[in-house]
């Protein structure tokens, strides 16, 4: 409700738009899962040649709606019109044949198959009852070249970065005649250059009359490409608005149903003793070379850099997930010799991975087990070889309540949760032990503004308790607003340490795009802001 007591939505200008020339029209769509009404009487339409953004908090119903459109879920009630014809009991295969191609946030690739094999999986081309590998390879290269992606069709997916796997998913969706393209957080793993290519592709598809449903929490890209925006909240459609007629603040407040005063909290940094010190670290893979940095209690240490610069691999190595070739790591003043996750957890270090599905969670297991699994060696959880069930349940319930998990239950499978709530479960694991050093790798990727604020507030609380936080993020505003010091990585090396007034967008971008042809000694002359510490 607005402060004057009126309904919040009614206090905003009328941005409602009239549908015309619809490719897709959904009327009164509802979908219920056990204990949850995921969609409640939702109307939605998509025109030929438009980009229609779905916007809402995690758990608002966006994923359920696009799964209904893609044929993954059948609606419990409502009318589904596609190209003027009513469709019932749609399956994913039928949707694909009709020209509906989804690119979901969670990938559906077979790791041990090649890029080309994944593109044609389920739609292989044959000649005289034999696979026509030459035709498939040619088509795969053609599609990849058209997208402008740097992909080798012969490489196995398991060897690709998450960014390149995202490219494979996009290429797979565009392999056939697409009339309706669904993109769910497509830029979450892409570099700026790759995002520009994707947006150029979207413009071409729009010009060809393809309708595009685009799901994103990134305000900048939403306003850049959207024609219309539909806001969902708690399974209901709140409004459909014209993208060029509403401000970012109004859009976020429509999503949240309340006034949002700040997107980033004011963090009171109080740097104290150095808890983690990394010196001249080089990884066996070579993706990190001769890197040094430190993190102090009571402050957030940000590490910024473009995708592929080595920033994620750096903190993965500190936690013992990536082999180290040279260098030293000191924890609480003592050199560390045991580099494995179990040893690091016992020492008081916790790592939160960027890919919460592949590395962070056991989706089929309960929330309770996912939170407690890293603390089962503690006396509070186990007596000898026996698990203390009551103590486990109470501890996990306290953590769930503290993180404001919705719903605040500990037994449902994690796979049933929204992206923001899944991330809270991952973070809960770090609260089950006495942790002093928190390694956050892309902590807010794919989650909404409200969930981001809650995670930022958690970070703030951890600092107040004397922890050291290392924040690795591709979201530059996140690093700039939250960090007390910012390190910048460029091509496997640490090229700058920024403090105070030096922490600004221009300074960081200058480090991102420094002269590629400079040798290491000449890096001192690169356009790094005055006063910055340069490697």
Considering the chains and any ligands shown, give keywords for the structure.
24 strands; 535 residues; 3 domains; 6-stranded mixed β-sheet; alpha/beta; disordered C terminus; 17 helices; disordered N terminus; 30% helix; Rossmann fold
CATH architecture of the largest domain: 3-Layer(aba) Sandwich
Helix and strand content put the structural class at: alpha/beta
**Unreliable stretches, pLDDT < 50, 5 or more residues?**
1-20, 516-535
Helix proportion:
25-40%
Q: Would you identify the CATH H-level superfamily of the largest domain?
A: P-loop containing nucleotide triphosphate hydrolases
Blueprint of the fold:
Blueprint: E1 22-33, E2 36-47, E3 51-56, H1 62-69, E4 77-82, E5 85-86, H2 92-97, E6 100-103, H3 115-119, E7 126-127, E8 130-131, H4 133-147, H5 162-173, E9 180-184, H6 192-207, E10 211-215, H7 219-225, E11 228-233, E12 236-242, H8 248-256, E13 274-283, E14 291-296, E15 300-304, H9 311-318, E16 324-331, E17 334-335, H10 341-347, E18 349-352, H11 356-360, H12 367-372, E19 382-383, E20 386-387, H13 389-403, H14 419-431, E21 437-441, H15 449-464, E22 468-472, H16 476-482, E23 485-490, E24 493-499, H17 505-512
Helix pairs in contact: 13-14
């Amino acid at each position: 409700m607005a402060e004057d007591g009126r309904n919040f939505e009614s206090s905003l200008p009328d941005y409602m738009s009239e549908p015309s020339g619809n490719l897709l029209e959904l009327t009164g769509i509802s979908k219920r899962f056990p204990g949850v009404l995921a969609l409640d009487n939702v109307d939605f339409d998509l025109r030929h040649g438009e980009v229609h953004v779905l916007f809402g908090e995690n758990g608002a119903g966006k994923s359920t709606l696009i799964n209904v459109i893609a044929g993954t879920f059948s609606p419990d009630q409502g009318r589904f019109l596609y190209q003027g014809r009513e469709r019932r009991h749609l399956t994913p295969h039928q949707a694909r044949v009709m020209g509906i191609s989804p690119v979901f946030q969670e990938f559906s690739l077979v790791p041990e198959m090649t890029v080309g094999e994944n593109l044609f999986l389920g739609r292989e081309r044959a000649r005289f009852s034999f696979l026509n590998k030459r035709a498939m390879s040619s088509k795969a290269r053609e599609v990849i070249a058209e997208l402008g992606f740097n992909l080798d069709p012969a490489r196995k997916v398991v060897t690709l970065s998450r960014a390149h796997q995202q490219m494979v998913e996009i290429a797979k969706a565009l392999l056939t005649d697409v009339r309706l393209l669904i993109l769910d957080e497509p830029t979450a793993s892409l570099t700026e250059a790759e995002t520009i290519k994707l947006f150029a592709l979207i413009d071409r598809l729009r010009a060809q009359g393809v309708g595009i449903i685009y799901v994103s929490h990134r305000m900048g890209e939403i306003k850049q490409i959207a024609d219309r925006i539909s806001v969902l909240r708690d399974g209901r459609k709140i409004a459909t608005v014209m993208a060029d007629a509403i401000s970012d603040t109004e859009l976020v407040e429509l999503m949240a149903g309340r006034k949002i005063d700040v997107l980033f909290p004011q963090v009171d940094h109080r740097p104290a003793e150095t808890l983690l010190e990394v010196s001249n670290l080089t990884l066996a893979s070579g993706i990190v070379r001769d890197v040094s940095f430190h993190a102090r209690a009571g402050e957030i240490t940000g590490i910024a850099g473009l995708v592929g610069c080595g920033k994620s691999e750096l903190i993965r190595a500190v936690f013992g997930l990536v082999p180290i070739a040279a260098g030293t790591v000191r924890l609480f003043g003592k050199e560390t010799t045991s580099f494995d996750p179990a040893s690091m957890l016992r020492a008081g270090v916790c790592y939160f991975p960027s890919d919460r599905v592949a590395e962070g969670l056991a989706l089929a297991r309960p929330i309770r087990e996912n939170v407690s699994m890293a603390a089962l060696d503690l006396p509070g959880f186990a007596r000898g070889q026996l698990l203390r069930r009551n103590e486990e349940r109470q501890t996990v319930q306290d953590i769930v309540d503290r993180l404001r998990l919705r719903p605040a239950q500990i037994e449902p499978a994690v796979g049933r949760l929204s992206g923001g709530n899944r991330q809270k479960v991952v973070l809960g694991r770090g609260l089950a032990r006495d942790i002093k050093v928190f390694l956050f790798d892309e902590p807010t990727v794919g989650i909404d503004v409200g969930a981001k604020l809650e995670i930022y507030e958690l970070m703030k609380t951890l600092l107040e308790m004397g922890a050291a936080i290392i924040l690795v993020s591709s979201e530059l505003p996140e690093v700039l607003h939250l960090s007390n010091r910012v390190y910048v990585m460029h091509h496997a090396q640490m090229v700058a340490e920024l403090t105070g007034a030096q922490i600004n967008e221009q300074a960081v971008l200058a480090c991102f795009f420094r002269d590629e042809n400079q040798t290491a000694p000449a890096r001192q002359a690169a356009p790094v802001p005055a006063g910055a510490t340069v490697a």
